[in-house]
Design a protein that fits this description.
Blueprint lengths: L22 E5 L3 H12 L3 E5 L8 H7 L2 E2 L2 H5 L4 E4 L22 E4 L5 H4 L3 H4 L4 H9 L4 E2 L6 H6 L11 E6 L2 H13 L3 E4 L22 H10 L5 H16 L2
Parallel strand pairs: 1-2, 1-4, 2-3, 4-5, 5-6, 7-8
Antiparallel strand pairs: 6-7
Length: 251
């Protein structure tokens, strides 16, 4: 049976906990992490949220959303999905063993984006390594790239019921395919058309500055935008996104 949420989108879950939703860990309590906690708790999922400063700093968010404030280690071991939603530079500061004992079938979602003005120069990324492949190599786990190309306000407010004309679409890229399928389901449940964007090596098509980035496109236009992205233009895309963020930070 589906669950109705305030946007009008209806979920159709096939989870292991009948009518109880998933257990989802979120590492990072910024705009995207906080938004996902709000949305998923409303949909009946059990959410465990963490940041680098400790659970006591998340009491207000926990009280507001119904999520449980925990440590990063506890969030990583919370359930069947873990969302890593932190600045790219912060990946370097994660505990080395954060995912060491997390079961292999737990899906790790990476929402991150590399902005040199915020993150400093990360040599491998500046040299062209795909951002989420870099994250996967740092944490020693496969990841699925999702929720990185939508503004938090749109993620919070603009989910629509399946079949609604103009429904915003979000790309999902990652490995293995069964992990990607689980994230596609979560995207649809949140009220967005979920677009299979291929393996993690294809996730550069949704990085900052690319044609699909933060434009709230419908499914047809998102697929076109992903196809239009050119690998050779990644430095240009990144520079444009970096300049936009620089202007935002100085206004």
């Amino acid at each position: 049976m589906g669950v109705e949420h305030r946007t009008g989108a209806r979920s159709h879950r096939n989870h292991s906990q009948e009518d109880g939703g998933m257990k989802i860990g979120i590492i990072g309590a910024g705009m995207i992490g906080g938004t996902l906690a709000r949305r998923w708790t409303r949909l009946g999922h059990e959410v465990f949220i963490a940041n680098s400063r400790g659970p006591e700093t998340l009491r207000e968010l926990a009280a507001e959303t119904g999520a449980k404030a925990v440590t990063r280690a506890e969030a990583a071991r919370a359930g069947e999905v873990v969302v890593l939603t932190i600045p790219q530079k912060a990946v370097l500061d994660l505990p080395k063993d954060l995912f060491a004992n997390v079961p292999k079938d737990v899906v790790v979602i990476d929402t991150g984006n590399y902005y040199p003005i915020r993150d400093g120069l990360l040599e491998e990324l500046d040299g062209g390594k795909v951002e989420s492949e870099w994250v996967a190599s740092r944490i020693g786990r496969p990841v699925v790239k999702a929720f990185n190309n939508i503004f938090f306000k749109s993620l919070l407010e603009n989910g629509k019921a399946k079949g609604t004309p103009g429904r915003i679409a979000l790309p999902v890229a990652g490995d293995p395919p069964e992990a990607r399928a689980k994230v596609l389901q979560l995207v649809d449940e949140l009220g967005f058309d979920a677009i299979d964007a291929g393996s993690l090596s294809d996730s550069w098509r949704q990085q900052p500055g690319t044609p699909s980035y933060t434009h709230d496109l419908d499914a047809a236009r998102l697929k076109q935008a992903l196809a239009q992205a050119e690998r050779g233009r990644l430095p240009e895309y990144r520079n444009a996104a970096n300049e936009s963020l620089k202007k935002y930070l100085t206004t």
